[in-house]
Amino acid sequence: MPASSFRFTGIGTTWQIDTGDELPEVVTARVRGRVEEFDRAYSRFRSDSLVASLAAEPGSVDFPPDAVDLFDLYDKLDEISGGAVTPLVGRSLEHLGYDSQYSLTAGQGRIVPNRWTEAVSRSGSRITTTSPTVIDVGAAGKGYLVDLVAEVLVEAGITEFVIDASGDLLTSGEPLRVGLEHPFDPSKAIGVVTIENESLCASGSNRRVWGSGLHHILDGRTGAPTSDIIATWAIAANGLLADGLATALFFVQPERLAEHFEFDWVRMRSSGIAERSRTLRGEVFS
Amino acid sequence: MITRHQKTAVTALAGLSLLGVVTGCSTGADASDAASTPAASSKSTSDAAPSTSAPAGSSEYKDGEYKAEGEYTSPGGKETVGVSLTLAGDKVTAVTVTPESTNPNGKKYQGEFADGIAAEVVGKSLNELKVSKVAGSSLTSGGFNDAVDKIKADAGV
C-alpha cells in the first residue's frame, strides 16, 4: 500500500500520485509545472493555448517537442480507423455544445471533420493550417500527460509510483489490481485486471453526457457521437498508447488494432456484452 | 459457421509449423494416426487444411477434438500457440487458437488470429473486490460537471 499520496487538479481533472515516500516539494512543483505546460499548449478550453490560436486563425504553430509522439500516434490511428479517430473532432464537439464555454447546447445537424492528414500539414512538432482549425487531443492527450508526469518522477530518481489521472493509470514497480468500473453503476466493477509497469486507460461514453445521445466520443467519419460501444479499457506499455487505443476501440475491431499495436483490452457494448482480449491479465465477470 | 472456421483453420495452420500433436481427445479408439496427418509441417502446406484435402467418400480422420502446440517465427522471435481443432465427418467444425506468447512482442502478431472472448457482463460490488484502484469514466472534467450542474439547476431538475 502506498505510504504517501499527492493530489492535485490538472487539465480539469483530479490527479493522484502514490509513492512510498512523500514527494519532495521540488518534485511536486515540477509535476504541476509539467501539467500546466501541457495545458497551455493543447487545451481547447483556454484562450491562451496554442490550440486556441490555431482555432482563431490559420497559420503555423510550433508545438512543444512532445507533440511529435502525440501526433505520430494520431496519424497512425487516423489511418487505421479511416478517419474515425482524429484531432479534428474539435469543431464537431464545439458544434454539439462541448465548447470552451461549456454551452452544452447542440447546433443543428453535424459537422463532419476534414481528414487530419489532408487539412493539416505537419513537420515534426510544427503544425500548419490553411483555415481556422480546432484540434482536440482528447483521445490520447490525458494518457500522454500521465507519461510526461512519470518522466518527471523518473528524472527525480523515483522508481516506484502509481499515477492516477481519474481513470488513466500508470504504474511503476509493484503489480496493481484495478477494478473496471461498471459503466452503469460506479459502485460495481465488471472485471478486475492486474497491471505492472504499464498503463491502463479507461474511456466511457455514458458519463460526460449533456443531452440525449450527446457525449464526448465522436466518430470523425460522421461527426456524431458513438452508440454501439459504451466503455473501453486498454492496457499498453505507456499512457499515450493505452489512451489512444481505448478511444480507437470504440470504432475499430480489436483484431485490426492488434495488427499494429501491442496491447490488451476490454470493451463493453450497449447490449451489456463485454469482450476482452485472450491475453488479458485478469477477468471480466460473466 | 463451418466455412468461417475452415478459413480460420487454413489461415492458422498454413502459418504454423506444428510440432506434432500433443494430445488427441478423440472419441475414436485410436486418434494418433488421424491426429498426425493434420499436423502440417511448414514444407507440406497442401496437408495444412484437413477439411479441404480429405478425399470425398472415405473418411480420412476420426471425429474428435485435436490439440496441438504450434510454433511460428515472428519478427520478435519464436512464438507458441495452442491450437484446438474439432473434426466431424472430415470437416473442421471448430477451431480455437490460444496465444501462449512469452515474447513481449508476441501478442501483436497472435492477435491477428486470436479473436476476443465475449460474454454478458455481471457487475460485482467493489466492496467485495480487493482492488487498489478503479478505472472508469465517472470522474470527469470539473468544468464540465459544473456546467451540467448549472443546467440542471436552471432547468429545476
How is the secondary structure organized here?
The complex is a heterodimer of chains A (286) and B (157).
Chain A: E1 4-10, E2 13-19, H1 25-42, H2 50-56, E3 60-62, H3 67-80, H4 89-95, H5 116-119, E4 120-123, E5 126-129, H6 141-155, E6 161-164, E7 168-172, E8 176-182, E9 185-195, E10 199-204, E11 209-211, E12 214-215, E13 218-219, E14 224-225, E15 229-236, H7 239-248, H8 254-258, E16 264-269, E17 273-276, E18 282-284
Antiparallel strand pairs in A: 1-2, 2-6, 3-5, 4-5, 6-7, 7-10, 8-9, 9-18, 10-15, 11-12, 13-14, 15-16, 16-17
Chain B: H1 2-14, E1 17-26, H2 32-36, H3 50-53, E2 64-74, E3 77-88, E4 91-99, H4 106-110, E5 117-120, E6 124-125, E7 133-135, H5 142-155
Antiparallel strand pairs in B: 1-2, 2-3, 3-4
Measured as a percent range, the helix fraction of chain B is 25-40%
Task: Please list the strands of the largest sheet of chain B in the order they lie side by side.
Answer: 1-2-3-4
Strand content of chain A: 25-35%
Q: Can you count the helices of chain B? A: 5
Helix residue percentage of chain A: 25-40%
Strand content of chain B: 25-35%
**What would you report as the Rg of chain B, rounded to the nearest angstrom?**
24 Å
How far is the N terminus from the C terminus of chain B? 51 Å
The general outline of chain B is elongated
Which runs of chain B of at least 5 residues are low in confidence (pLDDT < 50)? 1-57, 101-114
| Count of folded domains of chain B | 2
**Number of extended strands of chain B:** 7
Oligomer: heterodimer
Tell me the series of helices and strands of chain A, N- to C-terminal: EEHHEHHHEEHEEEEEEEEEEHHEEE
Shape of chain A: globular
SS-based class of chain B: alpha+beta
Q: Say how many strands of chain A there are.
A: 18
